[in-house]
Every structure is written in C-alpha cells, then in structure tokens.
Amino acid sequence: MGKVKNQIYSRPPLDRMVRVHGMLQRNEFPNCPALARLFEISVRTIKRDVDFMKYRLNLPIEYDSRRYGYYYTRPVQLFPTLAVTESELFALLVASKAIAQYRGTELQKPLENAFSKLTGQLDQGTAYSVGNLDQALSFRPFAPGDADLAAFQKLTTALRENRAVRFDYKNLGARKTLKRHVHPYHLACIDNHWYLFAFDVDRRAMRTFVLTRLSHLELTRKTFTRRKEFNAEEYLRGSFQVYKGRSDYEVVVDFDDWATDLLRGRKWHSSQELTELPNGASRLRFRLNSLKEIEGWLLSWGRHATVVRPVELMELLRQTAETLATRYHPHIREGHHDPSMARPMAVAPAKPAGETDEFKPLMQVHGKG
C-alpha cells in the first residue's frame, strides 16, 4: 500500500525534472537513490526522468563517479521546453481569448493566473508568437452570467469528492427561495450560463440548476455513490439547450434565403437535418423533448422562419404574436411605422392546442430546476 500511495501523490514528472535541473545548476551532484527518497518514488522512475532529460531534452548530463552524482558538463541557464506545433500554438491563443468571456467576474483572475503559468513554460520565440497574434483573434460573449467563485470552488470540490451540497434556490418567476439538498453530478457552461446537473434528494430525481440563482451554498461532509448510468450528453440529448421535458416532438421549420445563409454551416442541435429548398430557402428539422426553449429562438428569426410542425408550436407562436401585437398596437401611429413590419410572423393555421404541463402560453426559458 505504501508504494501505491507514493505513486499517487508524488510530484508530476515535469515538476521533478525542473527540481533536478536546479540541483544540477547549483552543482549539488544529486544521485538516483537520493532523488528517489526526496520525491518519494522508485529509483527506476527517477532514472527514467534523468534519461528523458539527457536524451530527449538534450541536456548535458553526466555522472561523476568520484562525487557519486550527476552534473552538467556545461552551463545551462534555462530548462528547455517541449516543442509546440502551429496548431497547438493557435489552440493556446484560443484558450487565452476564451478567458474574455469571464472578464469582470470572479473567475477572471484565477483563469489569467493559470494561463500565465502555462505560457511561462514557453520559450521566448513561442511566447513572442502568442503575443504577436494577440490582435488576430477575439471573443465577444453576449451577456455572460456572473460567477460566484466561492460557490464554484465548493461545487468542483463536491464533484471531485462526491459530497452532497445544500443551497437556497430561486425558481424562475418565484419571489421566495427554496431549500435544496442535492448530489452534484456535472457542471456545464451553456450559452454563457453555468448550470449544475444534480440529483435532488428530496424530489428523488435529476434536476438542473442555474448557478446565478442559487445562494448560501453549503458543502456537507456527507458523501454519496454516483450513478454510473448518468451521462450529461445523453441527459440533454432531446433538449434544445438545457431544459429537459418528457415529450417527443419532431420540429420542422422553413427558413427563407436570408435566414438560410445564417443557418448554413452551424450546429444548432445534435439531431438537426438541414435540407436546401428551391430559391435559396431551407428546411430544418430536429427532435426535441420540450418546446420550452425553442419559442424564443424562433422568435429571434422574426418573419424569416415559418413553423411546419408540430401544431403545438404553431399555436404557441400564434398566441405570442397576438399578445405582442396587442401590447404594442396603441404605440403605433400612422406615418411613423412600416405596416409590413407590424404584421405578426406568418405561421401555418392551426387549431388551438390545449394547455398542459408541458405546453403553456407563457413559457419559462430555463426551466424550474
């Protein structure tokens, strides 16, 4: 058991090699048995580290039999870094720019510190290339959510150690918070919002929580056994974004030529099928288990999108269009508007659909949690 423990908690190989490099610079003549004791690893492992430094990193390491230790045959100022390819360099640049979406939040500083540590391992030429390309790429996130660093750190600890958490949670539209006791399974950033997927102990079911709507988070000492069958990708397969329903809809929408140019080449849903139609138009179809999130997305396309099915979605949009027309009609004055822009989005005629738990005229975008 002792060997296993040492292997699990020993320093990473790169960290060990940097330490050995410092000893060689200071002419301390370290040897394998002494290094093995220092790092709490086997002599064979430290021997592999030294061989890697000598033969892969081309460091001038030799063994002095009189001093019983290794030394540098010539001065070495900097520890060499591994080669970085052009694609890896570009990926590194993307990572640095991705931090922009957390600017102004509590996550910005720790992310920037982590990136500085990574780039600190680069040679001067590569580091210059990253800086030289700084103006070539940028991220402009739309309305990123605020992040509570303390809550985020507690949740990552809970996920790593399978520990239960408690917090107060505010459902959409609710005036009061509710106490929740959950087993955290997964954290995901979706559309610039952080979500927690967790098993609700009191409701005995998986639930989705928006991090910006939970407060007073407590990391408990109670551990739980994680369900092996849970998979975040499978869990959200039928969701348009986050909300998970219990129905099964085939959603079919026709888009005009203007919208088709914006749709083409983008992945809107894992099940999507985009078919080109005459005159530059297109038809997009996918399967969803809920209509709660698709309404807002379709409304954002305005008159450029027409729902073909299901009937429930047509009726939902018809009711929303009538509500908007009634709400804004008193503010429209002759001579100050384009009549064509005031018409509701055209949808195929449909019979009124009955209201159910799954389908309501006024819908919540992110679900209750």
Outline the structure in words.
The chain has a 5-stranded antiparallel beta sheet, with helices on one face. A hairpin with a 4-residue loop joins strand 1 (61-64) and strand 2. It has 4 domains: 2-72, Arc Repressor Mutant, subunit A, CATH 1.10.10; 89-136; 149-235, SH3 type barrels (Roll); 249-342, Alpha-Beta Plaits. It contains 13 helices and 11 strands. With 369 residues, the protein is of the alpha+beta class. Helix 3 (32-39) packs across helix 4. The two termini are 43 Å apart. The radius of gyration is 29 Å and the shape is elongated. The chain has helices at 2-9, 13-25, 32-39, 43-56, 86-98, 108-119, 124-132, 149-161, 232-235, 257-263, 294-299, 311-328, 339-342; strands at residues 61-64, 69-72, 163-169, 178-190, 193-200, 205-210, 214-223, 249-255, 273-276, 282-288, 305-309. Residues 1-10 and 341-369 have low confidence and may be disordered.
Short account of what is shown:
With 369 residues, the protein is an alpha+beta fold.
CATH topology of the largest domain: Alpha-Beta Plaits
Count of helix runs: 13
Structural class: alpha+beta
Mean pLDDT: 80
- Total number of beta strands: 11
Ranges with pLDDT <50 over ≥5 residues? Answer: 1-10, 341-369
| CATH architecture grouping of the largest domain | 2-Layer Sandwich
How many separate structural domains?
Answer: 4
CATH class of the largest domain: Alpha Beta
Share of residues in helices: 25-40%
The backbone outline, from C-alpha atoms, is elongated
Distance linking N and C termini: 43 Å
Largest sheet: 5 strands, antiparallel
Q: Give the DSSP E fraction (strand runs of 2 or more residues).
A: 15-25%
